[in-house]
Amino acid sequence: MCSTKMLQNRPRRCQICSPHPSSLLLDLTPDDVEDPTPGIRITHLLVMEKPSGRGLHWRNESEQQTIENLILIFDNPNVIVREMIFTVDGNPAKFFENLLKRIGHRKLHVEKLFWSCVELAINPKQLENCLKFFNLFDSTTLKKLELNFSHKGLIAELMKTTQFQGLEEEIFIRSEIEKEMLENVFHSEKVKIQLEEVIAEDLKRAIEVFQTKKPGSYFKLSTTEIQVDLDKILAIFESMPDNSPVPTN
Fold first, then answer.
1. Which domain of life is it from (predicted)?
2. Inter-residue contact 178 to 198 (CB < 8 Å)
């Protein structure tokens, strides 16, 4: 079991999981190198339904025990997780419900959240709990977000939160969003999103926004559309000032 003392001693790896489909895995990987900034830095905190590799020694823990260990980790105010990976094959509704009952007023100090689910928020109560889960993350610490699920309604609600609006470094959304949501991601330095259709006006707006950002910033607009009006899109580049870089990746 993970403990605050173990974290302070900076073990290379602490893994907690269950092979049962109803349980979740907690995989904790502290840094191997001392960080010059105050606090304890953890490279990855992996919460997932199934083990991701072979040859690892797993300890059987219930879903409830996973929650208790999460609480134990974030009881230490000095713990900062660089990336928390939350991935579940099914619907995490029960896990969220139990976590919210136990977590209290604790905040999750995580710099990047990767959130992947096959199914979630199939009713208003589950949608509410998904938003409450996201609100657990400290808005001043969370700077990067990657979403890998298809739920336009939930994504639209997430965009209204303080946590989302504070994502200064990265916003990657692997599912299709409405083009009206574009302005809600332009505050970040690195953006990857999918649209049903990429039109010239949207591309021009993205170029104008990212030309004012610092070097290294970029955007990527993807689409599954087969028929793209290349003439209109190429005309945008002809209208750009000479030697004006286009920050795409």
1. Eukaryota
2. no
